[in-house]
Design a protein that fits this description.
This protein is mostly beta strands. The protein contains two helices and ten strands; from the N terminus they run H-E-H-E-E-E-E-E-E-E-E-E.
């Protein structure tokens, strides 16, 4: 009887394993997706019941690395529209109306781009969303453009976007390679 039970158990195990499918996850992306919030660390503050200011905005972007490459004027050509990161075009969510370059932008989700030059970046807020790269960029959907001075900065291996509180709202700081730009956002 023990022998018969063992054979049945082995048969069930082989049958179950034959029906199980091995699912392989895609490899990790070289440019992982990340997001930054204003106020900083909003989700963590929320679960800790420490939120003192309402959520104003969040940016979702992929973080490419320098990886011993020349970034601006090399990997990213000057004067060409750039998705402000890697992979999918970078998106920003505004949870309230904001003002950029004297232009009021209604709360909602937008794509942001930049056109880098050696001395400035032209920063763009565009209403087209859910797009990959800047291959289908359509300037007729631009909401606002603003030139931002390039600030030489210490080396930043992984592209980084952060928010910093100001008296009139917040700055969105963008760092990569040896460059920093600052976008003032009022609210």
């Amino acid at each position: 009887m023990k022998y018969l039970f063992g054979i049945i158990l082995i048969s069930v195990a082989f049958s179950a394993s034959a029906q199980m499918k091995v699912v392989l996850a895609p490899p990790l992306d070289k440019s992982p997706m990340d997001m930054s919030y204003f106020p900083e660390n909003y989700p963590i503050l929320k679960i800790q019941n420490k939120v003192s200011d309402p959520l104003v905005m969040r940016v979702i972007y992929s973080r490419p690395q320098v990886d011993n490459r020349i970034i601006f004027g090399g990997l990213q050509n000057y004067g060409e529209v750039w998705r402000l990161g890697a992979n999918e075009a970078t998106e920003i969510d505004f949870y309230k109306d904001v003002t950029i370059n004297s232009k009021k932008i209604k709360k909602g989700r937008y794509t942001i781009y930049a056109i880098p030059y050696p001395e400035k970046w032209t920063f763009i807020v565009n209403r087209d969303t859910d797009t990959w790269g800047s291959f289908k960029y359509d300037s007729t959907k631009d909401i606002v453009r603003m030139d931002l001075p390039v600030i030489k900065n210490g080396p930043t291996e992984d592209m980084t976007i952060t928010f910093e509180k100001t008296p009139t709202g917040a700055n969105m700081n963008m760092y990569w390679a040896d460059v920093k730009t600052v976008l003032p956002i009022r609210f």
